[in-house]
Amino acid sequence: MTSCAIPSTGEAAASASMRRGACPSLAAPMQTGDGLLVRLRPTDDSLTLPKVIALAAAAGRFGNGIIEITARGNLQFRGLSEASVPALAQAIGDAEITITEGLAIEMPPLVGIDPAEIADPRPISAELREALGARRVPLKLAPKLSVVIDGGGRFGLDAVVADIRLQALSTAAGARWLLSLGGTAAKGAVVGALTGDAVVPAVTTVLEKLASLGTTARGRDLDPAEIRSLCRAQALSGGPAVPSSVPIPGIHELDNVGTVLGLGLAFAQVDAATLTTFVHQAQELGAYAIRLAPGHAFFVLGLMREAAVVAQSLAAAHGFRIAEQDPRNAIATCAGSKGCASGRMETKAMAERFVQTAPWLLDGSLTVHLSGCAKGCARPRSSELTLVGAPSGYGLVVNGAANGAPSAYTDENEIESALARLDRLVRQNKDAGESAQSCLTRLGAARVSAAFEQG
Predict the structure, then answer these.
(1) At what angle do helices 49-62 and 272-284 cross, to 10 degrees?
(2) CB half-sphere exposure, 311, CA atoms < 13 A
(3) What is the C-alpha to C-alpha distance for residues 435 and 302, in angstroms, rounded to an integer?
(4) Closest CA to 56 of 30, 21, 88
């Protein structure tokens, strides 16, 4: 946790060749097709609206005006240059916004104010950072290694992948913390339960073990039984109940806070001018802050119920996602050819094509991944349908990742027809009550590929 360090021009230049897998920051921005990219997470639980306005102004002045919220709830600024990165850092510092550095420790977006929260994870986060900061020799860890500390509540992080996960459990003796490794809350390898005073020593032990394995080691590489013994965690007799989080887009009532408005960015990004206009409107309605959230989303705090309804309508007019049923929720996109030199697809335009041409595919049961190239930055894992930019057009990967072998191809002239055929395939074959995902699974990859490629 620190104020903004301003990188030198040389440092920015050195970062231009950053390998994939590292994390772009103010000190080490990443070269992309539209300039340098910076990713950051403000230290504040809440960003006051004046601070949001200051960030938007800085994005427009020093970058290309595109602001992104990542799948994990971090901010990204695009279109920066070697000269403008230090100026951006200065503007952030002038706005009195501090940036979290070092180990990525993630907590639920409404930490401390969610009435359903079992335990507040912030003291554990602070103690862990203090313990790591006090080390004479810092631990060398994988760049993207993350720790999730989830105190529970309506908006937990069960769907967020973590190397180390602490999940609050409610017991007769009080709150305990379930330690697991790798994956989501449902798929992580369970180590065992810990009492409060044992949590930070246990996590430190896990981090030391990872550091001993090298800077590519991740939570999934560890043996849960060995870690259970090292940390003296209490084994569970049965699998823990996997929490179920409430979708963020929508108007939510919190007993001790009142109304919060959840909104999402369309295809993960918004231009600075649009964000500034909406924030000013929300401020006039009584809002005072936002909280960043996973899933390219954020919460608006301070609105009364009636004002939240008005703000939600304004947000929809500005292109924000306002409901779980929004078909855009089912599409994952990278920056595409407009934002990345490797991209061979204008992913945002293609996403709009999907919404208009293939609505039967976007019922929320599956994820359509639009990837500008085979790296699959927006979604490295498998998706039911992945469309990949290729030199001669577009490749379709069914039930695979962007780096998988496409089973069908089409070109720019035929893509609209190909999407329409996929939509018709589901519309004409979907049984009553059946989801698009189940329909495609039943039809099989060969039939899906044939429909896409049929001329």
Answers:
(1) 160
(2) 30
(3) 37
(4) 88
- The H or E element spanning position 292 is strand 289-293
pLDDT digits (tens, 9 = 90+) for 341-397: 889 999 999 999 999 999 999 998 999 999 999 989 888 889 999 999 998 899 999
252 Cβ neighbours under 8 A, 6+ residues apart: 154, 246, 259, 260, 261, 262
Q: Which tokens belong to 427?
A: 């519309």
For residue 368, give the nearest of 353, 347, 384 by alpha carbon.
384
Q: What's the angle, vertex CA 93, arms to CA 90 and CA 99, rounded to 5?
A: 115
Nearest one of 338, 396, 332 to 370, comparing CA atoms: 332
* DSSP letter, residue 380: -
Q: Residues 37, 80: contact at Cβ < 8 Å?
A: yes
Compute the distance between CA of residue 350 and CA of residue 445 in angstroms, rounded to an integer.
Answer: 22
What tokens does 320 get? Answer: 């924000």
Give the number of residues written for the chain.
455
- First-residue to last-residue Cα distance in the chain: 56
What are the structure tokens assigned to 25, written together?
């920051």
- Over pLDDT 70: what percentage of the chain? 93
Residues 6+ apart with CB under 8 A from 300: 260, 261, 262, 263, 282, 287, 289, 290, 308, 311
Cβ neighbours of 444 (radius 10 Å): 12
d(CA 197, CA 181): 20
The pTM of the full predicted model, rounded to 2 decimals, is: 0.87
